[in-house]
Design brief:
Layout (H helix, E strand, L loop, with lengths): L2 E6 L7 H14 L4 E5 L5 H5 L11 H5 L4 H4 L1 E2 L6 E4 L14 H8 L7 E5 L6 H9 L2 E6 L3 H4 L2 H14 L5 E7 L7 H14 L13 H9 L11 H18 L2
Parallel strand pairs: 1-5, 1-6, 2-4, 2-5, 6-7
Antiparallel strand pairs: 3-4
Helix pairs in contact: 1-11, 5-6
InterPro entries: AAA_dom (IPR025669), DNA_Partitioning_ATPase (IPR050678), P-loop_NTPase (IPR027417)
């Protein structure tokens, strides 16, 4: 059965969605099938993967209200290997609800995919709790900045709380570092700080470099792999991170 992975951070702007869809792009490039679950009311994953949140008829909001996941899943415009469970503007009211509903919905379809990637909102409320309750693995996404590292302890605490209250199969798989500049003393210092906080082994390698092409890909709603040599260092990072994720999910 495909493992379910929640990607999260309470800090917005760290590139959580970028990492989620980048891993999906790497999966498709390697011939593997993934489902992206958009739990963020901003619906960035939904938009980037080719669907307008304003016109989505069945979304994660309805799944959280007991709709069948099958009724909500659509194919992304990137690849037939990337499916999407889209978000809509109806998702925000579900910040209060029963966290096990998403898990029940995803368990019925998990064996269709090599992995299910849940893009959690930039908060630690009920939507993130629902994502963690459904997941086998949690990955924290950070950027090497002072604001990017704030609150990592709170995120780890929420993972522990969900493990204790809702999902004793949940594991913290590690930390992915995004938006790493080529040369920056400040970024180096923050990376060292992160190492002290979580430990060197918890930080996945390689880090994802900061490149203009990443923002361009999001704006053009295209897979990072579709840019060929122009995005070679970024796609190489996502390919390696996907391989690591696959090793863990098959364990």
């Amino acid at each position: 059965m495909g493992r379910i992975v929640a990607l999260l951070n309470q800090k917005g702007g760290v590139g959580k969605t970028t990492v989620t869809v980048g891993l999906a792009s790497a999966a498709a490039a390697s011939g593997q099938r993934v489902l992206v679950v958009d739990l963020d009311p901003q619906a960035s994953s939904t938009w980037i993967l080719g669907h307008d949140p304003a016109t989505v008829e069945v979304s994660t909001a309805e799944v959280l209200a007991k709709a069948d996941a099958d009724k909500a899943i659509v194919e992304s415009t990137w690849s037939p290997l990337i499916d999407l469970l889209p978000a809509s503007n109806r998702l925000q009211p579900h910040e209060h609800g029963k966290p096990k509903r998403l898990r029940n919905a995803l368990e019925r379809i998990a064996d269709r995919y090599d992995a299910i990637l849940i893009d959690c909102p930039p908060s630690l409320g009920n939507l993130t709790t629902s994502g963690l309750t459904a997941a086998s693995l949690a990955i924290i996404v950070v950027e090497p900045s002072a604001l990017g590292l704030r609150g990592i302890g709170a995120v780890a605490d929420v993972i522990d709380e969900v493990w204790d209250a809702h999902n004793d199969s949940l594991e913290l798989a590690g930390v992915i570092v995004n938006k790493v500049p080529a040369i920056s003393g400040e970024a180096d210092r923050r990376y060292d700080e992160l190492t002290r906080i979580v430990g060197k082994k918890a930080i996945w390698q390689p880090v994802i470099p900061q490149r203009v092409i990443v923002n361009q890909a999001s704006g053009e709603r295209r897979s990072i792999h579709s840019y060929g040599a122009r995005s070679a260092d970024v796609t190489a990072a996502f390919d390696q991170l996907w391989k690591k994720l696959r090793r863990i999910t098959r364990a």
